[in-house]
Structure formats: C-alpha cells, structure tokens
C-alpha cells in the first residue's frame, strides 16, 4: 500500500512577484529548491496565508540567492506581492519507506533567505 506524506515544505516565504502574463508555474530561488529537495517541474501545493487560497502548480528554478518567489499565470490571481505562502510537495511511500521517512522543512527570514532546516515541527 502506498501512503502520501509531506515530502518538503518552504514555510512562510514571501511572494516577490505575481506575473499574470506568464506561461504558468511558480519560480522559486534555486537555493530554496535545493534545500527542500524540490525539483524543477515538480508539482507543488501553495497555501496563501494572507488570503486562504490553496492551489496546485509546478516549480521552476529561479536564480540562486535572489529570494524570488514568483507566482505566475492563472495562479497570479491567487497571490499578491507581499503575501506569505507555504509551498509544499508530497510523495507516496510504501510501508517499508515510511519507516525511514522524514520531511524537509525549510524556514526563511523576511527576505526568503534560508535560516534553518528541520525534519520535525518544533
């Protein structure tokens, strides 16, 4: 049996751009993608803390050390510059994999600079 668990989370990142006239997706600073273990074109869930919107899109790799979090295309209607977001990815694990499971939880400062990583909520 496969079970779905949180694989990675970028907690309380700040939206730096909201580009309606773009093909789609969410551009994320490459440092943050690497820290979370999220790949380019991987499906992500975005939870907007500011307005409660929840939506699905995919990640694209942004330039490293820029702090970019750009919500693009139709999703731009769901996030404005300055909104706080939680970006999450999930994966399916079998019973054997669950025994060694731990998520990548990434926390940032007000400039979307990684401040710490954890595998448990503190």
Give a quick summary of the entry:
This is Aspartate 1-decarboxylase. Its EC number is 4.1.1.11. The mean pLDDT is 96.
Task: Return the string of H and E elements.
Answer: EEEHEEEEHEE
Mean pLDDT: 96
Gyration radius over CA: 14 Å
- What CATH architecture would you give? Beta Barrel
Low-pLDDT residue spans: none
Could you please describe the fold and organization of this structure?
This is Aspartate 1-decarboxylase. Pfam families: Asp_decarbox (PF02261). Keywords: Autocatalytic cleavage, Cytoplasm, Decarboxylase, Lyase, Pantothenate biosynthesis, Pyruvate, Schiff base, Zymogen. By secondary structure, this protein is mostly beta strands. It has a single domain, classed as Barwin-like endoglucanases, CATH 2.40.40.20. Helices cover 9% and strands 50% of the residues. It is built from 2 helices and 9 strands, in the order E-E-E-H-E-E-E-E-H-E-E. It has helices at residues 30-36, 95-98; strands at 2-14, 17-19, 25-29, 43-48, 54-62, 69-72, 84-94, 104-108, 114-118. The protein has a 9-stranded mixed β-sheet with strand order 2-6-3-5-4-7-1-8-9.
Task: Pick out its properties.
nine-stranded mixed beta sheet, 122 residues, globular, mainly beta, Barwin-like endoglucanases, 50% strand, 2 helices
